[in-house]
Amino acid sequence: MMFLEHKHTIEELVAECNKGNRKAHEGLYKMFAPKMLGVCMRYATDRMEAEDMLQNGFVKVFNKMGDYRGDGSFEGWVRRIMVHTSIEYYRKHHKMMQIVDIETPGIEPSVDPLAASNLGVKDLLALIQKLPPGYRMVFNLYAIEGYSHKEIGETMAISEGASKSQLSRARGILKEKILKMEGKRYENVG
Amino acid sequence: MKMSDKDLDQLFSSQLADMEIEPSASVWKKIKPEIENKEDAKQGTLTWLQIAAAVVILATAAFMLRPQTGKVALHGEYSAAKVNTSPNGLAITPQANPGLGDIQVSEGTRPEAFATPKHRYNDGRTAVVMPLINKADTTHVMIARIEPTETHDAAQQQISQPVTPEVKLINNPQLQNNQPVKTLAANNVPVQKETPVAQKKKIRSLGDLFNVVIAKVDKRPNKIIQFKDNDDDDSEFGVSGVNLGPIQIKKND
Hints:
The complex is a heterodimer.
Chain A: H1 10-18, H2 22-43, H3 47-63, H4 74-93, H5 113-116, H6 121-130, H7 133-144, H8 149-156, H9 160-189
Helix pairs in contact in A: 1-2, 2-3, 2-4, 3-4, 7-9, 8-9
Chain B: H1 5-16, H2 25-44, H3 48-64, E1 81-86, E2 89-94, H4 100-103, H5 111-115, E3 119-120, E4 126-130, E5 142-147, H6 152-157, E6 166-169, H7 173-176, H8 206-217, E7 225-227, E8 239-244, E9 247-250
């Protein structure tokens, strides 16, 4: 299992993959799978969905490997494929649930940033996963991937305005939930 | 204290952007066969060269096998000839333009078609009566004996190099008086048609199909292009032989 020891550079692995070396495919998968599952988890409702996305994404990565021209990091390229695959997956499986009009809170809930920082990765991930799928996609793309509303609109085939409103609703829900969690925590402590 | 949108985004981004989670082993097991299938599928498809070759062959076959309406001109335009018995021997009056030039065995004309209008004499010799070349003098009689130098089978195999039978004028006094020759007209000869050999062999593969079509067009033992007809090896579709006249390649397996 020579490729699993991270002795090879990514460029070498990519070149080997393009030659059809299956060991190189596996090596590349092992190298990037945990990070990419981390990406998919944010777009999915649960781990099962995330692993489905990961699988679809890697099949695409290997099939399109010849298209990677070496401009920009390979990891960034793989990550973009994962994000697109996740959105595609969501569109296939959650089309019907796109707009679930949740009552928007009239007043912005106030959250103590210091208290919020106590929230761990698991808590935050759980918060994102519980968002309605449309909100979750937009929030991920904007807040974490750094896409503009224009790019989000193009990627998700929605208008820029829809992207903006979904982002603001997602933020509202997240703030509210963080507040509740903090409240419970204080209640428990106090 | 209110949390701004930016802070909220920052909170999630900082914690989740570089999150790593080890996937379960089943994921790779599902990815692996999908990549392998793609690579196998690539090998299974026909190459462009093979497709192009098939198209050319089928187009050529369609052209060669199109219904033929024109007559095959194996003989001249002359029709029946009158035979007169004269004291000096035989006199044949051709009714139409003799056009012997058309009879002459030349490219593509079958010698057997030429040789068939013959008369068998008692002594076993055969004779062919042919009209005259000279239009002006139609009373001359020419009796020719044809001595084919090749057998029928041999001649058929060498169509490209037609055999010219040796034609001799016979000046045989025995023939002159007492042995009248019955009407001998070249165009009484039934035109021998090439009856294609019945294909008894079953077509078992794509290569076979092409071979059958090519065999209709190309009668040589080594066809212009031959395909593998190996039915044990069903994945195989390839060329097993090429015959371009001077260039002949044949694969023996």
